[in-house]
Amino acid sequence: xxxxxxxxxxxxxxxxxxxxxxxxxxxxxxxxxxxxxxxxxxxxxxxxxxxxxxxxxxxxxxxxxxxxxxxxxxxxxxxxxxxxxxxxxxxxxxxxxxxxxxxxxxxxxxxxxxxxxxxxxxxxxxxxxxxxxxxxxxxxxxxxxxxxxxxxxxxxxxxxxxxxxxxxxxxxxxxxxxxxxxxxxxxxxxx
Length: 191
Prior knowledge:
The chain has helices spanning 39-53, 58-64, 69-77, 84-94, 98-115, 120-172. It is mainly α. Helix 2 crosses helix 3. The model is unreliable at 1-14 (pLDDT under 50).
């Protein structure tokens, strides 16, 4: 019987409670489709490891990446090179971080370059451009955070300075009785 879970996986747990149903393993890789294409198996293995690390079953991944189960199986066994959108959807579905996201995208570009050597240089340039845009967005976000923090600190500083000036001004001026020194009211004889 195919797709049957191994003993001890799924079913009832040690305390008699239900556990997660067993995942059906992914189809094995087909080495004949990887001849002279080292990046394709690296991409496929990386995607499979992402799915395995996220503990997802193929039947749950397929709808999440808008593919049929059959098409996903062909992508993950090496029969077909997945589209970039499929790679990105798998990365997102698995909840991978930005650092992890970069590797499968680079592998996809390299595998696509292996499949279409005439476009390899352009693909590498497009990938470098995308990485530059991502880096720019990260730097822009950090700059906006730093500017926001600077503005908050500047406002706090201004508030403190204004409060200090208000309290300091009265003490800087000595309080004395004002003497009226009105030069316009000299004692002049009436004319």
